[in-house]
User: Fold this.
Amino acid sequence: PVSTEILKEKIQREKEKGKAKELREKYIDLALPYIKKRSTKGLLHLFKHAIHEFDTAIEHNDNIPIMGVVGEIYVKYNSFSHKNVLEWLSHEGIEVVAPSMYNFFINSFVNFHINKNLNIKEVSLPLFITDTLYKIVYGCAKRFDKIGQSFRYYRPFADIFHDAELASKIINLSANFGEGWLIPAELASFAENKVYNAVSLQPFGCIANQVISKGIEKKLKKVYPQMNLLFLDFDGGTSEANIFNRLHFMVENAKQSLLNKE
Assistant:
């Protein structure tokens, strides 16, 4: 077996331990006044400074195992709800990639088309209006992408219509309740970007998450056979030992796969 100590030393990207978290908190605090003023210009300017400071705070190392995370919006983003899984993965030397919360709020632009085309429910606005609104939102996101691309490890905002097309090869897009088709869309996007290890975090018994996540596994692996998936269910009685034992095997597999490539 590979030495965990050697792997952790090898994949450490920060020049100073804890610096990335410190910078993240710093720039969140600096961004709040601009968010309150709705100043896109101010945020873009701040983003440039953040990129420069993050870039000088890290050692460039591309030989790091990457793991994507999808799931129900609360469980995925709230540390308490998922028992600090994401922080644990980071401490284990994994680069954790969680899709932006932006995806959850813009998938409705795709759903307008789905609801109308499949006669699921009445759409209150003409599609040319919602499509125009999406172009405005996506155009704003691309302004950040243009600046962000100067950072080697930056991951651009999703084109939600492209990701929905990927999802349609795995699931019927009429499953547009909750996260619904967004889960296979994000998993497919990971695969398209060569992130082949992914964890899905969902509340036990949630139709829009647990049922869809586990239900699409066979089809997803047929479309993307290189994907390595782990589904973790959470409720009040979830055992931490069960969660982290399963994650441990996933982590070791991701690290070993990276070493095998070398």
In short: Residues 1-11 have pLDDT under 50 and may be disordered. Residues 85 and 206 are 19 Å apart (CA to CA).
